[in-house]
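Changelog note: in this version the structure field was regenerated for every chain. One regenerated record is shown below for reference.
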Amino acid sequence: MTPARFAVALPAGQWSTDPAVVNAHRWDRSGWQPAGRPIGVAFAREVTDVQAVLRAASAARVAVTVRGAGTGLAGGAAASAGSVVLDLSGMNRIRELSVTDAVAVVEPGVITADLDRAAREVGLCYAPDPASAAISTIGGNIATNAGGLSCAKYGVTRESVLGLDVVLADGERISTGRRTVKGVAGYDLTGLFVGSEGTLGVVVGATVRLRPAPRSTVTLAAFFDTFAEAAEAVTALGVAGIVVAVAELLDGRTVRAVDAATGSDLASAGEVFLLVQTDGSGAGEEADAVEGILAERARKVRRSVDEATAEALLAARRSALPALERLGRVLIEDIAVPRGRMAQAAARIVEIGAATGVDIFTLAHAADGNLHPIIVVDPVDPVDPVDPVDPVDPVDPVAPVDPADPAIPERAWHAAEQIFATALDLGGTVTGEHGVGVLKRRWLATELGSRSHDLQLRLRQVFDPAGILNPGRAI
């Protein structure tokens, strides 16, 4: 099928083969560089556009790469040679926001933070908070089952998705799930589509769960001499039955990088930084309990007394990744281990860095055992240590590996592979929230086991027998 056939299938102006447009849609934020180029970009505005593209692609056996904002970190939205890029970012309407049912009905291109903002205007909130919430789309979050800081309390994206509208590979539209809070009729196809990374169908609508907006929030920062002590403190919070909204941990190397980039003096308070938040009507009481547990183990504990103080405590976490970006090119890895084994994982990551000669800085969503070992390569010239960084994202800013840069050094990939092996050895997973995409496929079979992996491959064939949806990704 020639590119012109796609132009005919879509309304005027919604198909492009312009090299500049195609190049802008070839990569996601992982930096993975697929060979060759896609044949064009289809810009969907309505469900019928998605159906038209998939029918045409299915008839011609042309691969389709589905794309939202392209903020993924595993190569899932990087388009392969000869494929069609299906851009859903223009399907960006909030169709309904119900206070009575505490749900929203949205299109896949709605920006995550925009949905949360709209919900808060009526006293509700959208709980999932991926790192790229300010720019990522709901459809992309659903595709990767995105996580974030508040997962330990509110769950990942799957826990907030009640129902989906999906267009299958042949262009047929189906609906899954429900609008009700409870419902157990049939297999959970909704849960299956969440996290499928565009390999089973194209999400064109979602009914998502909203929650009451927290009435109050208390922020605490604690400083420790070692990562192990900080990890043990987080474990102690869980053992005490305290479900914190946020527990973010920065290792010593990251703390020093933040100090160098912002002019702060965090390291004088302690080698390792832990940020904890409680929220809801009992935020103050929970914060009292948290403070007591941390005070027994930390060198120092600071507590917010007002919004300005809380903002000051959050500044270090916001500045972490921008500070590392100033040191060189970053590879953002993503593993999760049982919470009680975080200290072991962090210690092994230090050993891996020393053995491979790679600079590794570790951040963690500590409340759920999700670690982000950040590999820094291609060091840059030192910068003015008092020139403040721009905290791009208030949560966990992510920056792409520039596809125009030289290839990632082999030692960095070797370090990454050892990090994945460490996660599995400790009973964890090679991805807690970024997805498998292209970069972690070789590790997936090891984690799943051969029988489970085979079943998932066969399941994929049921939904997409021609294999046109995001080939070479995820499973």
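Spot check on this record: The chain is about 35% helix and 20% strand. Confidence is low (pLDDT under 50) at residues 381-404.
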